[in-house]
Specification:
Layout: E1 2-4, E2 8-10, H1 18-39, H2 43-55, E3 62-66, H3 72-81, E4 86-91, H4 94-103, E5 108-111, E6 124-130, H5 139-149, E7 150-161, H6 169-188, H7 192-203, H8 207-216, E8 220-227, E9 232-238
Helix pairs in contact: 1-4, 1-6, 2-3, 6-7
The protein binds S-adenosylmethionine (SAM).
Length: 241
């Protein structure tokens, strides 16, 4: 954990501690959606739409959104499964979940840790994690939990920041260094959380490594696709059976 001016407690990029992650997201919950939209120049909606599509979860199916935050992806999953299906969203930060519950009343939200999901084995056709894995120190354990709760044949979709295409990297670095802190100060009145955002993105590995994590956790048909010049990657896999 690191302390910054104004006594903001921040997680350590690369090995984030749960209490610091919870405190950080609790502190920015009210502005989270706005900041997402502004900092991604509106692309975040497209990324989540594609994530929901890649789940292939059918009408009447069951989906779990881990690290659901304010429920943006859970909402898209619910649109796919419809009233005959079910979607559960899990997150450790209560402030995020109370916003989610207000925004998407059709979805059931549960407080819980990705490392110990409060749901039974083999219960879901699809599990998604959007911008969550980077905030979890023990990603292997998190992926094993996803595997546990998927039914055999069920699909996982991980949406995460990634390594941009080489020609895009200088521009992206400048954007992270100059634009993100300024926008965070303007919209949040502080920059710490977004300092953590850029630091955690820079230490997060490229898509081949993440694909290896999925294979190590037991998934098959592991694949990924990049969006927005590699700024994000969408990883998919299937629990065998
Ligand atoms: C960057 S936000 C992403 C929210 C949402 N998935 C989205 O697409 O906007 C990360 C979320 O992960 C949650 N989180 C972090 N570590 C977690 C853990 N170990 N278990 C459950 N949720 C966690 C945070 O509380 C936060 O709401």
């Amino acid at each position: 954990m690191t302390l910054e001016a104004g006594e903001e407690v921040l997680p350590t990029a690369g090995r984030p501690e749960v209490p610091a992650v919870r405190a950080m997201f609790g502190g920015i919950a009210g502005r989270y959606d706005l900041l997402n939209a502004v900092l991604s120049l509106g692309e975040d909606r497209r990324w989540r739409r594609r994530a929901a599509q890649l789940t292939r979860v059918p009408r009447g199916g069951k989906a779990l959104d881990v690290c659901t935050g304010t429920g943006a992806l859970a909402r898209l999953l619910w649109r796919r499964v419809g009233p005959s299906g079910a979607v559960i969203g899990v997150d450790i930060t209560e402030e995020m979940l109370s916003l989610a519950a207000r925004a998407v009343p059709e979805v059931e939200f549960r407080v819980g840790d990705a490392l110990e999901l409060p749901v039974p084995d083999r219960a879901f056709d699809a599990v998604t994690v959007a911008f969550g894995l980077r905030n979890i120190a023990d990603h292997q354990r998190a992926l094993r939990e996803v595997w546990r709760v998927l039914r055999p044949g069920g699909r996982v979709v991980i949406l995460e920041f990634s390594t941009p295409r080489p020609f895009m990297r200088p521009l992206y670095r400048q954007y992270s260094r100059l634009v993100i802190p300024r926008m965070a100060r303007l919209l949040l009145g502080r920059t710490g959380a977004y300092g953590y955002l850029t630091a955690s993105i820079s230490v997060f590995p490229g898509p081949n490594v993440v694909a290896g994590w999925l294979r190590d956790a037991g998934f098959e048909r592991v694949a990924y696709e990049r969006m927005t010049l590699g700024i994000v990657a969408l990883h998919t896999g299937r629990r065998p059976g």
